[in-house]
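Limitations
The structure tokens in this dataset are predictions for the assembled complex, not deposited experimental models. Users should treat interface geometry with appropriate caution, especially where small molecules or nucleic acid strands are included. An illustrative entry is reproduced here so readers can see what is and is not provided.
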Amino acid sequence: MFFASDNGGPVHPQVMALLAEANEGHAMPYGADALMDEVRERLRAVFEAPEAAVHLVATGTAANALALATLCNPFQTVFCAPVAHIHEDECNAPEFYTGGAKLTLVPGGDKMTPDALAAAIAREETRGVHGPQRGPVSITQATERGGVYTLDNLAALARVAKAHGLPVHMDGARFANALVRLGCTPAEMTWKLGVDALSFGGTKNGLMGVEAVIFFDPATSWEFELRRKRGAHLFSKHRYLSAQMAAYLRDDVWLTSARRANANCARLADGLARAGAEFVHAPEANMIFAAFPRRAHQRLHEAGAKYYVWEGQLEGTDPDAPLTARLVCDWSVTEDQIDRFVSLVAQG
Amino acid sequence: MFFASDNGGPVHPQVMALLAEANEGHAMPYGADALMDEVRERLRAVFEAPEAAVHLVATGTAANALALATLCNPFQTVFCAPVAHIHEDECNAPEFYTGGAKLTLVPGGDKMTPDALAAAIAREETRGVHGPQRGPVSITQATERGGVYTLDNLAALARVAKAHGLPVHMDGARFANALVRLGCTPAEMTWKLGVDALSFGGTKNGLMGVEAVIFFDPATSWEFELRRKRGAHLFSKHRYLSAQMAAYLRDDVWLTSARRANANCARLADGLARAGAEFVHAPEANMIFAAFPRRAHQRLHEAGAKYYVWEGQLEGTDPDAPLTARLVCDWSVTEDQIDRFVSLVAQG
Amino acid sequence: MFFASDNGGPVHPQVMALLAEANEGHAMPYGADALMDEVRERLRAVFEAPEAAVHLVATGTAANALALATLCNPFQTVFCAPVAHIHEDECNAPEFYTGGAKLTLVPGGDKMTPDALAAAIAREETRGVHGPQRGPVSITQATERGGVYTLDNLAALARVAKAHGLPVHMDGARFANALVRLGCTPAEMTWKLGVDALSFGGTKNGLMGVEAVIFFDPATSWEFELRRKRGAHLFSKHRYLSAQMAAYLRDDVWLTSARRANANCARLADGLARAGAEFVHAPEANMIFAAFPRRAHQRLHEAGAKYYVWEGQLEGTDPDAPLTARLVCDWSVTEDQIDRFVSLVAQG
Amino acid sequence: MFFASDNGGPVHPQVMALLAEANEGHAMPYGADALMDEVRERLRAVFEAPEAAVHLVATGTAANALALATLCNPFQTVFCAPVAHIHEDECNAPEFYTGGAKLTLVPGGDKMTPDALAAAIAREETRGVHGPQRGPVSITQATERGGVYTLDNLAALARVAKAHGLPVHMDGARFANALVRLGCTPAEMTWKLGVDALSFGGTKNGLMGVEAVIFFDPATSWEFELRRKRGAHLFSKHRYLSAQMAAYLRDDVWLTSARRANANCARLADGLARAGAEFVHAPEANMIFAAFPRRAHQRLHEAGAKYYVWEGQLEGTDPDAPLTARLVCDWSVTEDQIDRFVSLVAQG
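Predicted assembly:
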């Protein structure tokens, strides 16, 4: 019963298979491998973007920080939600990679609103050389709280950015989970709305550790290459990154896995709802925040369930006190595990 | 016939096997996996250093740059050979990770001499606040030209550093190749001589992409962890790094592979010597620089051999002109490939 | 009628006189001038801190950014008020000088409360290696809105910082204005409360461009020297910085000037109150925020008064609409200018 | 007898006079002062560059580091002489301001040769993404050893840079000394040859602490403004920088002072030559390196002469041993002081 994160699960068997297959003989290093050509073409096709620049890195933080560094000068500021991964969970990597840019937190929850974004941007307009200059807008889809922006939401945010000439970055660590939720095309969720650069996640959805960074305008592609190398994120044995991403894209593994993760989460949410849990954020992708009594949490912990108690303390005197769990499902969670988890909560 | 680099070869089968084995169920992310415990204990045992701090990263540049950033302030300078990887092949990663420290090139070839090092350090003593302050000494073992420092060489360099209170970093991207050449223990080649931090290479010797960074004094271990995360080099699915390094250490795979790489190179060197080639650097580990006539190079290229023409141009009118090849053997090169290469040169 | 800032006024005549006097013959550069010895001794005496390290720089931003860089690692975060100069008015200089540290904005107004500070610090405790580590607390005294923390306020904030082992920086660009308001000693407002490093302002209070950075524990003094040089803030002709600061400290010029600035502001506030203006922030030092009708603003602008309309637009159709002015008095503003300004407002 | 540096002398009386004059009433801060308009127009006229962007900073290191940061990406390298101030005397400020760019030292002495520069640039061409990319060429005129490049020398260097599309920076801390030596126009020594950005020195030639940074193509002017502010080098009371530079340019104070400094140095060199001294570098501007016996040095030191013994130790047993002095003349050195210095050497 592992619901701590979608980064705790195994690698998809088709990925392991292609890694094994790719492990034949010698290959040119540093991205000159044949599988990278396949990856590039597949991603361009998936995104209907035949000119897009495609790069692979091994961590989501690298994807975000390098993408932002390419879009943002050190005297600028990045607009993002207060709970954005780039702000909360990257130990200042964006500040490091951009050479000291700032992050401006747009007031609100996990989903920025166009009005709040517009106000935050307007506020940074008034101080000339004294304040940081306005830089990229970074949108997380799906969000850090498991939410999914609608296409209208995204389009409205991008319009605000574009009205000020600001580039738009999408942190898509859970891109696939959002995409299958919305049922739209990758192009519709990105460049057709105004997204300039995308961190296209794979690690949380069945890879060992690969994310693509996609620039829909390839003009800064070479700069990205240099920043990736300077950041020590260029792999010599690059074929093993390529193989992961190629397997991910072949046979729609990425979509199938995301559908399964979302379905797992929906099953969990349904079960917990029936068991009386209350949801802080409505379930939209593969992550939920559910409140239920402390005694149920204690029961789960005794049974070895892994997840984060997000609000409240497991230890405490009031067995009825509601504690909030963050529960994340990856593609590999089984229905048995979900049902067992639910039944432990349902015991009251 | 792939002699372009030791980063073009396949992953060792025992590594692939443990990756597959590790791919069962869920594991705690970010280094809290059980295999990391094994790696830490094995490396401490191998180095006879029960307190050493052990961290894994995925690229050699990350290992070097993060190790140096931990040892070096931004107003200092790192002493290294002019051909050091950290100077020539990391696109300013050390400057980036240290926050703008300088690299002082110690005049000479691929092996620094104690006298040249002492003179370079002395030269940085005279300018007070105006010049950079003296920082770590970084030694590459084996060197970028395939050379191996003797233990006496290393000890003398470390003594110079220590006389000025400077920390010593060893870039051990080819640590194993040097070690088996010298036939000493890992401790003898590192902390017993005064090495403070080691980039312990794995990628060039059969891994997919893992290097360990070892601090023999663990005091800065937490700082390293933060710098690694900030540099986007902390893997969520860390177990796959751990598995590679664990397989590398089990059954002496790392030593066996290095011995084989060195033996391959010796066989190649012997053959080329018989074929009349001349060596720029004497063969000591798994890399040689050999000069032979242009027509032999052209013959090799037609046959699909992969390697770098280090000096001279493949195209040219004088078929007898000697061009220098850089030839690197990894563990996976076969005797057949070597012999075929030699025979193509030997045709005159 | 110049109330736009306290950086628009002339240099105090005693400062000009000492600059002229210091301009005799040659002097050793880079801080080895005799006047710097005087400055060091005077500041140590003023602060009852015989061991304190004293350094001069030419801008307030340099003082803050270099002080913070000395106190803060790049993987940490600085706690400050949302309106802090270091956040709003330094174009990412703290991020630049610290190598990419973050600024955590403590919710609230210009004065941080101990509770809000404690909550902000607590919030940064929970994410291990993922979030930035907790770094210095930076307190602005007097604040960016003209407020003055009481000694109790300051002590309570410092206690929160110290409870977490965090260093305390005070941005004292208007240190003298706060000090004379409180009527305490410099020691009481700084190290006796727990302040570790102080940006001791001079520029806004009659100097041409000099601020002192004082570390009450001199252990990091040499690091500061190196960071100052690296930041290009070490003056070769340092005697002209020393002369300014020496003149400032001689004959209590700094205190007399601050008293005069505060008195000017009080006179202005009294006059505006009588004229019906309303104050957003109660006048405490030399800066006020006063709301009065648009037509009075228009009258002032026609008369050439210089100040910022902080809220609202000068142009507009409703002459009665209240607009907020930010009004800052330096030591050189005359009673005539103040009275003329007030009379223009009082005309209704 | 102060020959330690040209940064030890007093401020020119016409500069002091204009500072006093500028100290009337209030002025708009941050460069919006009227004297800055005068400075801008005067420099554009002096350089026959009506579109040039002109900025003032207070230190030569700031001028160089900010100019280079504007011209150079963090993944590039700056080409300069091994003795360049930016390499030897700025404590890594260029590395800091550029965000971690490298400096490539062009082999040779204080004057780069076009061949050596071309070879150094060619060498950085071969490593693709692995090495740093080629960035600006920085030329020091006059050099750190008192040399002056001819216009032909400069043109040849610039041609090499331009052949590779690289921008050219001139470190003109002693620009005026070189200019009056060559007897050419400022335009001829800069943009007509291909110089893109100039650090136009004032501090060593009679100012308190002001240098101009001039971009002949103003496209990056706003970026420079932001980098200057972020580097904490924007002065609030900017009028005092403007006043210095305005006085410097009025009445050709800058040229007259430089001529006097050079004439002082020539008189010193002539006297020393007659006294038997030998010159390491031929005197060309206002700095010489002269070797004469230890006993003469000891005599000078007893008499209070200030200068650096560049090679050799003042203390020693052989009174005849030749030690090399670095001797720098500023505009304020008197003939009496020079003659007294010479006579002390001439005593044998």
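Some entries come with short summary sentences. For this one: Chain D has 13 helices and eleven strands.
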